[in-house]
Write a structure and sequence with these properties.
The protein contains 19 helices and seven strands. A three-stranded antiparallel sheet has the order 2-3-4.
């Protein structure tokens, strides 16, 4: 196992770590927040339904959405109907879609009882399956993975709802000649994690997912290379070592096969990091491996120290903190869907606080120690900020709380349903005039979408054209669901909390 420190090397991968100047603030926020976390949880899942591509099921909740992209894959003579649009456009990108499925699955595994008690477990499973059904189609051919549907350049020149889009649905793939280790390994992780979710009640499906995960991992290892076909929209600055370690970790948890543990211990390259995202998976793998360490795998101790390092890098009262935190208390790594880092931090901190509580552990950061309650308090602080406890006293989740965003940067939400004659009359340049540039609320509420959020000074403009602030993503929400489930269950049953 090699170890590098991405916190030191981050400039070489174009990641800007910003050092927080000034003192920390009180981490010990009360358990019973003023937000209805159960409602936020429900709405965050509804947003994922609004992102569905393909033929929608009868029980689909956002009524303004319809079937879309029913010919996807035809250009490559393969069925690629289904899956998710990642954000406010109409392209299906393989890397963030797989990451959405992996993190949704992790939330469903870790907070199954909490999701069940809130009545949302079946909806989360349906959201996972919407992704895995598509990923199975995308990986149906041996040593080939279809990783993108749609032409991003043409798509971004047209502001049209997916039901009426006329832009090309070109197909990109990776194979032995054109490798893409990051996407192959992340898809493997998604299949392995989701197989655990379905194991108890749909064993054949779980078996199919796990088998596919194994094949994709072998493909990712055998044909190494960074795939840049999704650049400039999803460029993997961090390389593929994190995805390989992440996939091997999920495969070991799902299969308990020694070969994957051996890979982690002998071949994987790990790193100390201060973020968890669609591009950088180390912290997630380290926390999963810490769980195994505390359960008896003492050879994994180095990963536990790296997980602690992640916590120490983020907590504002840690002597090793290096992530910028706004005056209002929000983690801020970079403009453009910055809320994904707030929800990813909240999710990993929530998971780690559970582990600390279960094993009666603390995190040591130099001369300071942080217990489970303090780690969870910071997770809660991130979610509370997004839901309305911030300098602007406003929610950053559409349709939730006080003064929520009305102009999400999102084609489907901002374009009304059109009659056949209206559709024919609209061309791409006029689509921006008619819908994008209008300073009016979206005609369709994108319920539950967590928008990109404020800048590092807690400033926010609710304008469709301010995409860095108003565009939502599937992975921002998938990362929020586990933390919201825990907070909702804590709110309903305070005695179940580790605090």
């Amino acid at each position: 196992m090699g170890i590098i420190d991405l916190r030191v090397l981050s400039s070489s991968i174009a990641v800007a770590w910003l050092v927080l100047l000034g003192g920390g603030f009180d981490l010990l926020i009360g358990v019973n927040g003023e937000f209805d976390y159960g409602d936020a949880l429900t709405k965050s899942i509804i947003f994922l339904e609004a992102q569905r591509s393909g033929k929608l099921p009868a029980n689909h909740r956002p009524s303004w959405r319809g079937d879309s992209a029913l010919q996807d894959g035809k250009l490559a003579n393969v069925d690629l109907v289904g899956g998710y649009y990642d954000a406010g456009d109409n392209v299906k990108y393989g890397l963030p879609m797989a990451f959405t499925v992996t993190t949704l699955s992790w939330g469903a595994i870790s907070y199954q009882s909490e999701l069940k008690s809130t009545g949302e477990l079946e909806n989360v499973r349906a959201a996972i399956r919407w992704g895995t059904d598509y990923l199975l189609k995308a990986s149906s051919k041996h040593n080939r993975l279809y990783v993108q549907v749609g032409d991003p350049e043409k798509d971004h020149q047209c502001w049209m709802r997916p039901e009426n889009m006329k832009t090309p649905r070109s197909v990109l793939q990776i194979d032995q000649s054109n490798p893409g280790t990051e996407i192959a390994a992340e898809t493997s992780a998604a299949m392995a994690a989701s197989s655990i979710v379905f194991r108890r009640f749909d064993q054949p499906y779980a078996h199919q997912l796990l088998n596919k995960a194994k094949l994709l991992f072998e493909f990712a290892k055998a044909h190494k290379g960074t795939y840049d076909g999704e650049c400039p929209f999803y460029c993997s600055y961090s390389g593929y070592h994190d995805e390989l370690m992440w996939a091997a970790t999920w495969l070991y948890i799902a299969s308990r096969k020694a070969t994957y543990l051996n890979y982690i211990e002998e071949e994987s390259i790990s790193a100390k990091v201060a973020e968890f995202s669609w591009d950088l998976k180390y912290a997630g793998a380290q926390i999963l491996l810490s769980k195994l360490y505390w359960e008896g795998h003492k050879s994994l101790e180095a990963y536990k120290h790296q997980a602690d390092s992640f916590i120490c890098s983020v907590l504002p009262d840690s002597p090793y903190h290096q992530v910028f935190i706004s005056a209002g208390g929000l983690v801020h790594l970079r403009d453009g869907a910055n809320t994904q880092y707030a929800t990813s931090t909240a999710f990993l901190f929530s998971i780690y606080s559970d582990l600390l509580a279960k094993h009666n552990q603390q995190v040591t950061c130099g001369n300071k120690r942080f217990d489970s309650a303090q780690v969870m308090a910071f997770a809660k602080q991130q979610m509370d900020y997004l839901l309305g406890k911030n300098p602007r006293d406003r929610s950053y989740m559409v349709g939730f709380g006080q003064n929520p965003p009305k102009q999400a940067h999102h084609r489907g939400a901002s374009v009304p349903k059109l009659s056949a004659t209206n559709i024919d009359a609209v061309n791409c340049p006029m689509s921006f005039v008619n819908w994008y540039n209008k300073n009016t609320p979206n005609p369709n509420e994108l319920t539950g979408a967590i928008v990109g959020g404020p800048d590092r000074y807690d400033n926010f403009q609710d304008l469709r054209s301010e995409s860095a602030m108003t565009e939502p993503t599937t992975y921002t929400n998938s990362l929020a669901i586990g933390a919201l489930a825990k907070l909702a269950a804590t709110q309903t049953h305070p005695h179940t909390s580790s605090q």
